[in-house]
From TrEMBL:
<dbReference type="GO" id="GO:0032259">
    <property type="term" value="P:methylation"/>
</dbReference>
<keyword id="KW-0808">Transferase</keyword>
<dbReference type="InterPro" id="IPR036390">
    <property type="entry name" value="WH_DNA-bd_sf"/>
</dbReference>
<dbReference type="GO" id="GO:0008171">
    <property type="term" value="F:O-methyltransferase activity"/>
</dbReference>
<dbReference type="Pfam" id="PF08100">
    <property type="entry name" value="Dimerisation"/>
</dbReference>
<dbReference type="InterPro" id="IPR029063">
    <property type="entry name" value="SAM-dependent_MTases_sf"/>
</dbReference>
<dbReference type="InterPro" id="IPR016461">
    <property type="entry name" value="COMT-like"/>
</dbReference>
<dbReference type="GO" id="GO:0046983">
    <property type="term" value="F:protein dimerization activity"/>
</dbReference>
<dbReference type="InterPro" id="IPR001077">
    <property type="entry name" value="COMT_C"/>
</dbReference>
<dbReference type="InterPro" id="IPR036388">
    <property type="entry name" value="WH-like_DNA-bd_sf"/>
</dbReference>
<feature type="domain" description="O-methyltransferase C-terminal">
    <location>
        <begin position="70"/>
        <end position="204"/>
    </location>
</feature>
<keyword id="KW-0949">S-adenosyl-L-methionine</keyword>
<protein>
    <recommendedName>
        <fullName>O-methyltransferase</fullName>
    </recommendedName>
</protein>
<dbReference type="InterPro" id="IPR012967">
    <property type="entry name" value="COMT_dimerisation"/>
</dbReference>
<keyword id="KW-0489">Methyltransferase</keyword>
<dbReference type="Pfam" id="PF00891">
    <property type="entry name" value="Methyltransf_2"/>
</dbReference>
<feature type="domain" description="O-methyltransferase dimerisation">
    <location>
        <begin position="1"/>
        <end position="47"/>
    </location>
</feature>
């Protein structure tokens, strides 16, 4: 919650905007805070603005839109609704599922999409550096549920011969310009159709308990590339899975 407060106050931006080290009084002034609050300010974590800034992710996951459903989990467990598709999220938000909710709440959707885009910046950098072989011979690729396209943009830049299509729901991609970097956007539902391409990219998150470090696997299943972010929740790892990126062909 301290991080949320720091981001809401605009602390990272104030530090970033200041040329050189910033003193506490200068920071208080830059943030337009009462001088009496100076003693408390040093307790807040400082985040700096850069493409990997976790601020929007933090604000998204701590937003009541996402935290409220957790307060209803025990009630959901006890309820007899196994076959009606109700989730803690939909029970909180008038029966809407998460993507349906996002389509109707642009402010939260923007926050969430920005959080995803920041994450993709980081993952794309690792994938491009460590997983190049998975893209050899791929002339066209479609990033399914690719959000606002940061992954596709990074891939198109790294592999100029490859054209990239980002498929996502209309409220996410409508209004986004086709990038000059061989990137175009298609609004649609992945359960209805996926644009034709040499390869289909899926970025998924798995929480498993065998790995010692967070790991990204670039796996290919036929023409499907799967960026599998494996997040460790265990304590032991084995030597085969310690690489930051694995390419499985
Ligand atoms: C967790 S976000 C991941 C976005 C992006 N792949 C990334 O890693 O940054 C999931 C994405 O799936 C999209 N999505 C959900 N249902 C979809 C559907 N039926 N068809 C296409 N996209 C969908 C959402 O709009 C959202 O952008």
């Amino acid at each position: 919650m301290s991080l949320k407060c720091a981001v809401q106050l605009g602390l990272p931006e104030a530090v970033q905007a200041h040329s050189g080290p910033i003193s506490l009084p200068e920071l208080i002034s830059a943030l337009s805070l009462p001088p009496a609050k100076a003693p408390y300010l040093h307790r807040l974590l400082r985040l700096s603005d850069n493409p990997y800034n976790a601020g929007s992710l933090l604000l998204a996951v701590l937003d009541p839109v996402l935290t409220e459903p957790f307060h209803r989990m025990s009630a959901w467990f006890r309820s007899e609704n196994d076959d009606d598709g109700t989730t803690p999220f939909s029970a909180t938000h008038g029966g809407k599922m998460v993507w349906e909710y996002m389509a109707m709440e642009p402010e939260f959707a923007t926050l969430f999409n920005d959080a995803m885009a920041r994450d993709s910046c980081l993952i794309a950098e690792v994938v491009v550096k460590e997983g190049r072989s998975a893209f050899e011979g791929v002339g066209s690729l479609v990033d399914v549920a690719g959000g606002t396209g940061n992954m596709a943009k990074a891939l198109a830049k790294a592999f100029p011969g490859m054209s990239c299509t980002v498929l996502d729901l209309p409220h996410v991609v409508s209004g986004l310009e086709d990038g000059g970097n061989n990137v175009k956007y298609v609004a649609g539902d992945m359960f209805e159709s996926i644009p034709a391409a040499d390869a289909v990219l899926l970025k998924v998150l798995n929480v498993i308990n065998q790995l010692a470090v967070p790991t990204i696997r670039v796996q290919t299943y036929g023409h499907t590339l799967c960026f599998n972010q494996l997040v460790n929740i265990g304590s032991r790892g084995d030597s085969n899975t310690r690489l930051p990126v694995q390419t499985r062909l």
